[in-house]
Amino acid sequence: HAKASGRNNYQYFSDNMRSEALTRSTLENDLHHALPNHEFIVYYQPLIDLQTTPNQIIGFEALLRWNHPRKGLISPDDFIPIAEETGMIVAIGEWVLKSACKQFKIWRDQDQPQLKKICVNLSARQFLQNDLVHSIRQCLDSTGLDARFLEIEITETVMMQHMSAVIRILQQLMQMGITVSLDDFGTGYSSLTYLKKFPINSIKIDRSFVRDILNDPDDKVIVHSIISIARHMRLDIIAEGIENKEQATYLMQAGCRFGQGFLYSKPLPADGLIDLFPMFD
Ligand code: C2E
Ligand code: MG
Ligand code: MG
Ligand code: MG
Fold first, then answer.
1. Strand pairing of 117-121 and 72-74?
2. Which of 6, 168, 208, 241 is 20 to 30 A from 110 (CA-CA)?
3. Where is the EAL domain (predicted)?
4. Which residues contact 245 (CB under 8 A, 6 or more apart)?
């Protein structure tokens, strides 16, 4: 009996592996058609000023979604890694940037002066293309969006690779008036050296530290330390993944100025957001 079930297990796993490989190669194959077939959508999640009452929306983070013709909506964690490995992220990233800038310009033009920034995530791979600065400048020119409204988000993983090249690029972007934030802070191969060496304007506290902030003493210490460092370095600070009022109050009282999370809004397509303007209660 043991033998039989062992064989079944073996078959089970090998079938499973085959179907997994199939999924991955199907996804990779389908991803090639996603851009020309208009299957991508940019969702936007509001960025909130925690220190104002009522809390104002000061901008949005652009978050990519793939509306797959058979599988439906696919989350970025499931396809961005494939897009990075294959290099498709460069073309996809340009499309996201352009869509987000275009949309933010529309919102700004609708007399929404409290909207101060549109945040767009960039992958390491995009820093390796030799014309990133040029392509961002072209995007701003063609959409007519003022550079000071654009914020790019990078992770510690991006910083680790090709340090000096990345620093050079960030400096060029900052000279244009673009701001830079360090995303998922504390989750990567964190080194405080990055804060010192890299030109950045703000830090995003990863949501893994926010989740248990009310109960976990370690998370409290970590978050207070990040906020203190940010304040001394004159960096903006934004907390990710705020899901309830208690977390928001705690973070606000700890000195965190900005936040985003399901408490305020999930990421939504552009036309679903207009109702939320100009602020939350
Ligand atoms: P991220 O940049 O750290 O984005 C924040 C993620 O947290 C988003 O996941 C968002 O939906 C989620 N989130 C926001 N508030 C809450 C909350 O209160 N609770 C919980 N549980 N989650 C919350 P999403 O949209 O699935 O994106 C995942 C990651 O994919 C992003 O993490 C980012 O690293 C990457 N990504 C998304 N769009 C792009 C893109 O256009 N380009 C690149 N290179 N990466 C992208
Ligand atoms: Mg981000
Ligand atoms: Mg993040
Ligand atoms: Mg992330």
1. unpaired
2. 241
3. 24-281
4. 263
Structure-token match 């804060």, residue found: 195
Residue 22's pLDDT band, with cuts at 50, 70 and 90, is low
CA-CA distances (angstroms) from residue 81 to 59, 151, 178? 26, 22, 26
Confidence of residue 245 (pLDDT cuts 50, 70, 90): very high
251/27 Cα distance (integer angstroms)? 39
Q: Are 206 and 260 in contact (CB under 8 A)?
A: no
Rounded Cα gap, residues 189 and 184, in angstroms: 11
- Reply yes or no on whether the pLDDT at 24 is more than 50: yes
For a ligand 1 pocket test, name from 98, 103, 240, 247 the mutation site with the most ligand atoms within 8 angstroms of its C-beta: 240
Q: Between the CA of residue 22 and those of 4, 7, 30, 76, what are the distances in Å?
A: 27, 22, 12, 19
Compute the distance between CA of residue 73 and CA of residue 66 in angstroms, rounded to an integer.
6
User: How far apart are the CA of 151 and the centre of ligand 4, in A?
Assistant: 16
The alpha helices in 35-180, defined as continuous H runs, are 76-86, 89-109, 124-128, 132-143, 156-160, 163-175
Q: How far apart are CA 85 and CA 87, in angstroms?
A: 6
Mean pLDDT of the chain: 90
CA nearest 59: which of 109, 95, 113?
113
Angstrom distance (rounded) from CA 280 to CA 266:
14
189: tokens are 């191969």
Q: Which DSSP state fits 118? A: E
Q: How far is the CA of 206 from the centre of ligand 2 (A)?
A: 9
Evaluate whether 276 touches 68 at the Cβ level (below 8 Å). no
Give dist(CA 265, CA 261) in Å, integer: 6
